[in-house]
Amino acid sequence: MAPYESDDTTGAEEVEDLRSGRRKAARYVVPVAVVGVAAATIGLVPALADSGDPDLPKITAQQLIEKIAKSDVQQLSGTVKVSTDLGLPDLGGLENSLVSGATPSGDGSSADPTTKLTELATGTHTLRVAADGPDRQKLSLIESAAEYSLIHNGKDVWGYDSKSNQVYHETTDEAGKQPKHEAPGTPGDFADEALKSVDDTTSVTVDGTVQVAGRDAYKLLIKPKQSGTTVGAISIAVDAKTGMPLKFTLTPSSGGAAVLDAGFTQVSFAKPAASTFDFTPPKGAKVTEDDRADHADKTAPAPSAKPGDDFAKGFEKGFGNGSEGPEGSGVIGEGWNAIATFDTGTKGGVPSGAAGGDMGGFLGSLGDQVSGKFGKGTVFSTRLINALITDDGKVYVGAVTKDALVQAANTGK
Q1: What is the DSSP letter of 261?
Q2: Helix (H) or strand (E) holding 5
Q3: Which CATH number is 16's domain given?
Q4: Rounded to an integer, what distance in angstroms lies between the CA atom of residue 31 and that of residue 182?
Q5: Rounded-to-integer distance, Cα 287 and Cα 335, Å
Q6: Residue 186: how many CA atoms within 13 Å on its side-chain side?
Q7: Is residue 100 within 8 Å of residue 37, measured between CB atoms?
Q8: Which mean pLDDT values do the consecutive 10-residue runs of the chain (413 residues) have?
Q9: Quick one: 154 and 42 in the same domain?
Q10: 3-class DSSP state for residue 231?
Q11: Which of 295, 328, 363 is the last residue of a domain?
């Protein structure tokens, strides 16, 4: 470790003040719809290429957060490696449809980012990213003998799946306006999401230095103070020169490997060639025009009253395939123990037996049966996110333990 380490912490009010003045630079994202649960969690993640502990000037946590907030990098290109280990069972691709709300046999294009990027919810993937200001971004998901690309160039957003030779096209109202779909493209996006969850229930410190993708960086360490959360720690490697996050790591409170790991393995801050963002549908490609323009504003999440609520509200929003939570939804608890809850209005919990058919029985077998003052229900668990569906149709979901969900259901508060 570098010959310094700062235990200076930054408070909730300071973080909130910084958040209100967060940079207006490009967010290095490709506009797309991201999977529900993955959208909330993939926004919390390290690069797999770091070496050495550079000797850098001492800095406090407050100063490092200010450095992130003031970062104004608008041009870059590089390679990002993303590894996700939520502990999901192998469902042969079915988990992507369940999370995104899409049906495997639907009429939508395979190039539609709403479902395509659900692949990032499991396994290890390599992404190539490029950005040139707020009007031009590109993200390419490198696959075996194929590639999926998302290009935002002015008013146009293109998605292209080379395997199926299908194209998705979306048009924004005006250049400079972000399209209605967004997906995290770099650790900077992930860092923004993590910092939203910082409040009085959080410890924030500087944890030495590291080198990522050949660049010197400071390490910002975020740890919940509360018990009962499945989040162990979040580490953000911040470029010492530009203040841009280069790497983001989320480890669970249960220990073991990182739940989500994403960051640069190579990065350049030179202006990408203009041709990087050019796209013309290949000959013979099937082009699908987006028909969801009327929902642009309706899909945007409402601002949170408290920083800690953002974390749980991400789950609540994601549970409905990127739409607003169902009527009667809300958040109970605070900070890292916040739990999103809503009433499905359907009695009987998870369908099983003859009533639910084979699929109902299969889903029920993936969960743990629990009971309490609330009655009975089923808990579905991952290494980070747990959800309780009660037999009377209520749902509780959050980055908390199974016991915390049961307690929330018992109190109803």
Answers
A1: E
A2: none
A3: 2.50.20.10
A4: 4
A5: 44
A6: 29
A7: no
A8: 44 49 33 31 37 85 92 94 81 45 53 80 90 93 90 94 94 61 64 80 94 96 93 96 95 92 95 96 93 45 38 38 54 90 75 47 71 92 92 92 94 73
A9: yes
A10: strand
A11: 295
